[in-house]
Amino acid sequence: MNKLIGSVKEAIEKAGLKDGMTISFHHHMRNGDYVLNMVLDAAARMGIRDLTVNASSIFDIHEPIIEHIKNGVVTGLECNYMGAKVGKAISKGILAKPVIFRSHGGRAGDMENGSSKIDLAFLAAPCADEMGNCSGKYGPSACGSLGYAFSDALHADKVVVLTDNLVPYPLKDTSIHEGYVDYVVQVEQIGDPARIVSGTTKITRDPVGLRIAGLAAQVVKHSGYLKDGFSFQTGAGGASLAVAKYVEEMMEKEHIKGSFCMGGITGYMVDMANKGYFDTILDVQCFDLKAIESIRENPKHQEISAMRYASPAAKSAAVDSLDVVILGATQVDVNFNVNVHTDSNGYIMGGSGGHCDTAAGAKLAIIVAPLIRARLPLIVDEVLCKSTPGETVDVVVTQRGIAVNPKQKELKEKLIKAGLPVKDIEELKQIAEDIAGVPKRVEMGERVVANVLYRDGTLLDTIKNVL
Amino acid sequence: MKILKNAVAGTLESSDLFIQIEPDEKELTLEIDSVVANQYMDSIRAAVLETLKEFDVSTGKIFIKDKGALDCVIRARMETALKRGGVETL
Lengths: 467, 90
Description:
The complex is a heterodimer. Chain A is of the alpha/beta class. Chain A has helices spanning about 10-15, 35-45, 65-70, 85-90, 105-110, 150-155, 205-225, 240-255, 265-275, 290-295, 305-310, 355-360, 410-415, 425-435; strands at about 5, 20-25, 50-55, 75-80, 100, 120-125, 125-130, 135, 160-165, 165, 185, 230-235, 260-265, 280-285, 300-305, 325, 330-335, 340, 365-370, 370-375, 375, 380, 395-400, 400-405, 445-455, 460-465. Chain A is about 30% helix and about 25% strand. In chain A, strands 1-11-9-6-2-3-4-5-25-26 form a ten-stranded mixed β-sheet, sandwiched between helices. In chain A, helix 10 links the parallel strand 14 (about 280-285) and strand 15. The mean pLDDT of chain A is about 95. Helix content of chain B is about 35%, strand content about 25%. Chain B is globular, with a radius of gyration of 12 Å. The mean pLDDT of chain B is about 95.
């Protein structure tokens, strides 16, 4: 049996890609990914049209997809996150069919229960053997975890592995194994690993960011979850990492040993685990090169699939065992609904990723964000897009005060008793408007450019075009 | 009062604004580009016009790139630009 094929074009032919089909991609190469553009360019040259692209995330590097949309090569787009460049074009209405946004868990779940069908999956593999055993841990383009690609490999009709590092059979440490793979293509480069790094990997020095992080850490402490066995997820980005730093200091002082940290993993979380604050790292994607090195070397550092991470279709997922998650927001409304899909002008510039999955799963979901950013108040009457339902958000922490979801009466009492600046969310909104002025409501167009699905597949909100 | 010479004030940092002013004997030109134009254009314009009025300036060219500055910042940057441009304090 020979799976090894000479070119992307040949793989597309052999796998039987036809007009109207759905093809999928994963985003572990992040803003350094070459594979999505490579495949779409080849398909376009072959005259294939009317494709639906289901990519776990679309980054700015994927800007060429805009031309493929204009030329009718791509007529459908599904993803969990979309960067600002493609997002702006979508918000302007270049795609006739609304984009489908899912969460990381929702994408895995919808593939599992059959509501999201993939004809052909393309896996970017930093190393693979000729039968398609592959891993993200080794090679010049190593990206670490291949977490989101597992669903694609399991559920797509045909699976093509693209690698720039073909190794002798059998690959010693396989993530996705040959049983799922139809074809293997050797390409010059699957991406630029220097562009994997997400956000900043340094702790913020911005006093506002540090104040927010300090308050968030106090919320974690007084919530009662910070004890032996504590599990924790936080993102990349200066303020989220600062929360981790303050939590680490408290764990050190009170000799607390946590159980696991999870998520997109940064070097900071790796350091915390190595110092003994967490037993295990559950890693669905690596955010920096230190995390990539760790998943390769450290047996405590486990690769997990999107299903295990967050799928609501699974019998259980790791998010269900999570104590505390720290999340961001572009807008929060007075009912605690969070927007991470659009900016304040309504342009698409993000997506749920694991936001709504972890908020739903974690015992304590904390939103950290400055009360005002470039004059725009964080808290509004109604978010432009409901990305995460308010019922699943417990606390909003800003530099000027902490708002606790009224559903969490007990938690609110604990935080007040601890002397933290707990305020009504309406009061926080008022403080911001007293400083910045009341923002005029942004008028959106009438056309739906994206449907936002909740993790269970139900419609959570729609995003309209920007005028 | 009149703007006597070209002057600038402010920066292009987030939450600040950059102002350029030039003399003009005849008319007032006001160009404002703001990242929060949708939400706050009326109040930005009002802050600029009020500062001009305070200094009794009715002609000149004013170019503004706003990165989400608060009204108090807009007024302060305007005052600096006008003073640098030769407008005397009343």
